Amino acid sequence: MTETPPPCPECKSLYTYQVDALLICPECGHEWSAEAPPESGTQVRDSVGNLLADGDTVTVIKDLKVKGSSSVVKVGTKVRGIRLVDGDHDIDCKIPGIGQMGLKSQFVKKVSD
What residues does the Protein YjdM C-terminal domain cover (predicted)? Predict the structure, then answer.
């Protein structure tokens, strides 16, 4: 049984194939080394598995109590321009009406642009 090549890192196409030491995507034409190490750094994903990046817009999927305050971040709150950081709370953002705070990616969903 042959091993299936990984999807294209550019367009995520599953129709990649290998020629000598290169992997090739027929859909976008991207070529990369089969021996290339995986992306360095950790990937941050939202509650449904979408990959998050700096500057994305997300919505909160459940009411979140703000530690040290009586405030609550309501479900459906839209947060623009997030910044990914290392740590337990992997998103730094400014929430309208509350201010700067850290969120866990498991409590947000990426808004498609």
Answer: 44-111
